[in-house]
Each structure stands twice: as structure tokens, then as C-alpha cells.
Amino acid sequence: MNTAQLKIISWSLATLFGACLAAYVGDYLTHRAEREKRVSKEEVTGLLDKVPPIEKKADDIVAYERVNQTLNKYNWTGKAPPKVEVPTGPEVPVAVGPVPVATLLKVLLVKADSTDDSGSRAVIKYLPAAKVTLKEQTVVKHVGDALDAPNESIMVAAILPEGISFKFADTARAQELVKPVEFEKRLDMEELARLGGSSIPKPTEVRYPRSKTYGEIPERTQLVGDGIYQIGSKDMEEWETSYDVYLSEVELDRHRDPSTGKYDGVALTSVPANSVAAAHGAKEGDVIKSINGHPVNSTQEAISFVKNNKDKYDQWDVEVDSKGKIHIITYKVKKK
Hints:
Elements (H helix, E strand, L loop, with lengths): L2 H28 L1 H4 L5 H9 L14 H10 L31 E7 L9 E6 L11 E5 L11 E7 L2 E6 L7 E3 L10 H8 L25 E4 L2 E3 L2 H17 L1 E6 L6 E8 L5 H4 L7 E5 L2 E2 L3 H10 L6 E8 L2 E8 L4
């Protein structure tokens, strides 16, 4: 292709493009007024109303639950698996014996009155096997009381120093004795009062279960239960001769009730970790409220009460407020 032919083709394309552009501009100018005319809302609404509604197709998707159920119930062939015949023989009755009472409950403490059964009482705690639906699983029982549902057929026959003797509605069944646990749980007086109110005995009247070393007097104080200490013979001698030395190890102060402003105990403001007081369960921040039910509002009052009654008691129950929670620390003293 020579130069002349290229020029002819270029001029032809330019002429064609110019003609198309002129036709477009002429058409736009001719219908300009019509194209710039605004369509009213009523016209648009009318046109849309004339559009026929779209038919809703039925959902042909199968729910996943049905597919999953089918896959689990049938194999891939669609056939149900063959049933397996399990040979069965004659049913053999299972002999069910009586359930021991010791598997249903624990005896936490007893107070036995040998002269009058009405003065005896005990605190028990139901175990899960008892299936008792009470809100509080720890309850007080007296002689003649039945256990709570569904164990009403079991009754308290006697409360003895060594435990509780239970009898049964089935009179042919022999009575069973359940012994107290060995210091597994110590109920404080606040909890005892909640359980039984005024019927609960004072701390000095409660007979706690004996430990394995009952009757022995250790030289040094030992923790023998939850909050229960056995005072050692040497500790007792040293305390009686030089109690002021022990007191100098700790810092004490009178405690005021923040709501009333009155003195209501002795606060332990400082208790060294290796002190004798710490070995006896004293903790910094504790407040001693009473000793054997006697309120103490000062250090001297506490010391005087103990010294004046040292021959009267062989067990000291110290009520302690530990960060708002009341509990009892017991000190047992065995005399030679």
C-alpha cells in the first residue's frame, strides 16, 4: 500500500466520523427539549404499578437437620441398616440390700444428756447419696427425729457420747451407730445458732469427737483440728510464769465498733510470723470478741478473765472477728 492509498483511507474515515458526529449533534438538538423534560413522581409510580409481580419460587433447599438425620439413620444406598437381634434371657432380679446410714450422712458433733433424752442433740450433714433437697444440708436432730425426705424411714433412736444410734421403720433391721468425724469440721457458734437457735448448747457443754491422740499431753501446742489446738504442757508452764514476754511479741489495741464507737474487743495490730501467738492461730488484723462467752474489751480484761478462771475450764473457746467473719478458735488444756 502506497502513500496515496493511505491518504485516501484516512480522509474517508475522518469524513465518516465527522458525519456521525454531526448526525448525533443534530439529533440531540432536535430532541433537546423532550430529553430535558423532568418526569413527575406520579408518572414513575404509574409505570411501576403496571409492572406485574414476580412469582415467588418455592424453596427447594432441604433443611440441614433432615439431611443430617437421614445420613445418620441410613447408609449411602438409602436402605435402612439391618436390625441386630440381641439375645435376651430371663431377667434375674438384683438383690438390693439396705443402705448403711454412714453412707448417707456425717455426724459433726453430739451433745449427749444421760439423764434426759430431750436435752440431747446432734448436728449432722447429709452426703450426696442421701439425695436430700434441703437448701441447708447441715441440720440439728433430736432423739426420735426422722431423717429428711427421702429417708424418713430412718430415725434417731439415741444420742450417745460415742455417736448417734439409728433405728428403722423395718423393725427387723438392727440399729446402726454412726460415730462423729474426727475434727473434720468445726461449726462456729454463729452457724450453730442459725441451725438450732437457743436449743444449741454452749461451747463448754458440747462434746467434740476425740482425736487419735486423745489422753496424751504434748510438750508443745499442736493443731489437732480445724481451729482446734491442744495446748502443750511446756507452753502452759511458760505462759503461767512469763505471759508478759509472750504479749510483748505482739501489738494489741482496743477495738471500737465503727457503727457505735464503743469498745467491742481486742485488736491484734501486729503478729510476727515466728511468734508464739502465731503458732497458736493468732493473725494480724483479728479482733478477739469474747472468751468462753465472756466479752473482752481490753487486753487486761482478757488476761484477768483467763487467770481468774484457769482452774475452772479445760477448754477455752475464743470468739474472733477476722475481716468481718466470726469464727471460734478452741484451746484444749489437759491437766496432769
